[in-house]
């Protein structure tokens, strides 16, 4: 792979973001921080083609993103939103949905996926409406993992959760990164970014102001905008 980067974003512009460039290495956790309206969520939507750039290009595994079939991109680059967006029905109905589309669901996968998100296999038959918010978010993550994505895009997935659920999901993300899954997550929680990220991207007004290794960027911000943001 070109420079060992799994994903390269080169000078990408849309109506919401301007001249965005960054690289994501295999197995890295990248946190995107910044004020509301900075374009953080819009950037995630670009990375699995919910929107396409009007300028610039995104390269995934040495091939321009638009050259892949959309269904392949949605499997390989999974997106989990702030609200779990589960389908009606049981936990198993949700887990098997993606793999069933391509005839790849095996019933043994259900308990394995729930174990990853620290839920017992007894949850498979439960209606998703009976689950707590933290449980629903973990099932949403498991549903995305059912497609065996190489990249996980997470949009504020822990922002509405209790501390125990946050801790469980952070542990899961770290373990996934060790399995060589690349994670790009929007978070408003600077402490979370510090705890688990290899790299941080700071956005404001639709553009990247600063990016770098987590410890360096948080402890030694170079721009006035980031210095001010970290004080707030």
TrEMBL record:
Domain ABC transporter residues, every copy: 2-230
Entry keywords, A to Z: ATP-binding, Nucleotide-binding, Transport
Any Pfam family the entry gives: ABC_tran
Superkingdom of the source species: Bacteria
Gene Ontology molecular functions: ATP binding; ATP hydrolysis activity
Organism: Anaerobacillus alkalidiazotrophicus
SMART domains: AAA
Full protein name: Phosphate ABC transporter ATP-binding protein
């Amino acid at each position: 792979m070109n420079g060992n980067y799994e994903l390269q974003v080169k000078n990408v512009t849309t109506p919401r973001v301007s001249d965005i460039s960054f690289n994501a290495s295999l197995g890295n956790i990248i946190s995107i921080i910044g004020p509301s309206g900075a374009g953080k969520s819009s950037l995630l939507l670009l990375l699995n083609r919910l929107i396409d750039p009007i300028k610039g290009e995104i390269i995934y595994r040495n091939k321009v993103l638009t050259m892949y079939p959309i269904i392949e991109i949605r499997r390989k680059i999974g997106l989990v939103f702030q609200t779990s967006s589960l389908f009606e029905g049981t936990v198993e109905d949700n887990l098997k949905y993606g793999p069933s589309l391509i005839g790849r669901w095996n019933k043994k996968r259900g308990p394995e996926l729930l174990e990853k998100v620290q839920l017992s296999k007894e949850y498979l038959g439960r209606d998703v409406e009976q689950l707590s918010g933290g449980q629903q978010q973990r099932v949403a993550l498991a549903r995305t993992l059912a497609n065996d994505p190489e990249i996980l895009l997470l949009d504020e997935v822990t922002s509405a959760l209790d501390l125990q659920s946050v801790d469980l999901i952070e542990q899961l993300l770290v373990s996934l990164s060790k399995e060589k899954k690349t994670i790009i997550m929007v978070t408003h929680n600077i402490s979370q970014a510090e705890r688990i990220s290899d790299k941080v991207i700071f956005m404001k007004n639709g553009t990247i102001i600063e990016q770098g290794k987590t410890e360096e960027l948080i402890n030694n911000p170079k721009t006035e905008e980031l210095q001010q943001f970290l004080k707030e």
